[in-house]
């Protein structure tokens, strides 16, 4: 049987997989739903910057230009991905959204594209990204029709907002960034969840990411003692985003949102607030509706894999959060994870 790999998605994980497939001399192609490479980043909120400094934010084979200690913004990194695909001559086909992936009787896979076209491949690497469908809690349905709802994939900047208080639900890095942006034009309430630990941005003149890499915190497996602690903490660097800093910016900090009634948001401490807009920043879930392959998906709709290897022969994943470790959800983890997945794919062929 002729061997060819289809990589689904041309974000950082898909491009890293393509890099290692090319180095191995494998026959492969890349299909991406967007019009341009990098559009998955361009579609996110305007003020977005990467978690990690440039020195930790490059893919294998091409440095990310600029101050190594500084942080790339959304558009800069999107352009880097586009340049990466171009300079390394990676065969990305844009505007090719996969709407169904099925398994044929001969063991090959068949991808059906939105335009009705089809492509067969002996192996599939799914690199669809971790930010697919924003989660919206059921409490959202208790707000009245006068409240505008936005999610992280819709929100761009404060100019979208109608006049009136804005409630941000979720105090992760994105939620805190969006709270600061919204405060430029409107009153803001940030509804928090579990206590979060923020890390200092630098220690003894070195980036916190340098120290985390040095101590092995980024590469510890999730079932190890260190890895389980890192996962439970879910910390991110404090770049002027502590709750105290947000309070100084005149952002009201509220506990967990537990109920709503028309325009009134109610919190776990019994307090409430009148709101005009709610921005939901409570994370994402996988969209696996297109993956029509038995055993490839868990009951909750998440992709089933172990370190990127599906129980379905010939199916692999890259770019999954905690695929192998904390770095898996960061740019710095895309290259190493993709390299191991490609090695496993080639080894499975030999077997």
TrEMBL record:
Species the sequence originates in: Neoaquamicrobium microcysteis
Protein name: NADPH-dependent L-lysine N(6)-monooxygenase
PANTHER family: FLAVIN-BINDING MONOOXYGENASE-LIKE PROTEIN (AFU_ORTHOLOGUE AFUA_4G09220), FLAVIN-CONTAINING MONOOXYGENASE
One GO molecular-function entry: monooxygenase activity
Pfam entry (one): Pyr_redox_3
Assigned keywords, A-Z: Monooxygenase, Oxidoreductase
Matching InterPro entries: Auxin_biosynth/cation_transpt, FAD/NAD-bd_sf
